[in-house]
Specification:
Blueprint: E1 3-6, E2 12-15, H1 23-78, E3 81-83, E4 91-93, E5 96-99, E6 107-122, E7 128-132, E8 141-142, E9 144-149, E10 154-167, E11 171-173, E12 177-184, E13 192-200, E14 202-207, E15 213-217, E16 226-227, E17 229-234, E18 239-251
Parallel strand pairs: 7-8, 15-16
Antiparallel strand pairs: 1-2, 3-11, 4-10, 5-10, 6-7, 6-9, 6-10, 12-18, 13-17, 13-18, 14-15, 14-18
Length: 252
């Protein structure tokens, strides 16, 4: 409210307050300041949130990249593929004695009985298995046997009406489930420590250097000295010979 004043000459006038002393001016100033501070705080929060979001996204991407890298590393360490030249040629033979290099080409084969059952052996004694069209646990008979046949060796088929020799694929990769046959550590099996378990059938399980020489089966048989699994180290260059229908290798 304006204040009336009288000077020394008796004149009356109204004294007006300066603008900066008026209460409503300061109210406006306070409101403006509050709005300004609020806006600055919002910008800071937005910047902080954006920074946090970007950091989280970067961390997530880094984690994803690390996971993919780890997965790739794991896959590359557990699998491999090697191309090994195979000069084998498919042929079907009846009962008899045959010379590798004359009657059958040298190479790696999966040998299968297509009619009848009987012995499949070689002169050196490194092959000695019973083949048939059906698996027979009691007789130790398997349906196929995978093996390398070398030039000059003699193989014999006894009691088998018809036997097919089929070349194996040139690409050989690490496997953990193996049928009856001779398997090379470093080509078919990754070197390492394994529990070897019988999953089908029963028969001898040996290595070329004599480190392993066991009778393995799906059931233990103390009278026959048969066990259901063994634990052993398999080294590069060894050959694992299995006369079982199927075995499983479990990495330790």
């Amino acid at each position: 409210m304006a204040k009336k004043m009288t000077d020394k000459d008796g004149n009356t006038y109204v004294q007006v307050k300066p603008w900066y002393k008026r209460w409503w001016v300061w109210v406006i100033i306070v409101i403006v300041l509050l709005i300004g501070f609020g806006s600055m705080g919002s910008d800071d929060d937005s910047s902080s949130s954006s920074s946090s979001s970007n950091s989280s996204s970067s961390s997530s991407n880094s984690s994803s990249s690390s996971s993919n890298s780890s997965s790739s590393s794991s896959n590359s360490s557990n699998t491999t593929s090697k191309t090994v030249k195979n000069t084998a040629k498919e042929v079907t033979l009846g009962t008899g004695t045959y010379k590798v290099g004359q009657d059958i080409k040298p190479g790696r084969y999966t040998v299968t009985a297509t009619s009848g059952s009987g012995n499949f052996t070689n002169k050196s004694g490194s092959i000695n298995t019973i083949l048939g069209t059906d698996e027979d646990d009691d007789a130790g008979q398997v349906t196929s046997y995978t093996v390398d046949l070398h030039k000059g060796e003699t193989i014999k088929l006894e009691g088998i009406q018809s036997t097919n020799f089929k070349p194996t694929p040139a690409n050989r990769s690490y496997q953990v489930t193996l049928s009856a046959g001779q398997w090379k550590v470093g080509q078919d099996i990754k070197p390492g420590r394994y529990e070897i378990k019988a999953t089908q059938g029963s028969g001898n399980l040996t290595t070329s250097d004599g480190d392993v020489n066991e009778i393995l089966g799906t059931e233990a048989d103390s009278d026959a000295g048969q066990v259901t699994h063994i634990t052993t180290d398999l080294s590069d260059g060894q050959t694992l010979d299995s006369e079982l229908q199927q075995i499983q290798l479990i990495k330790k």
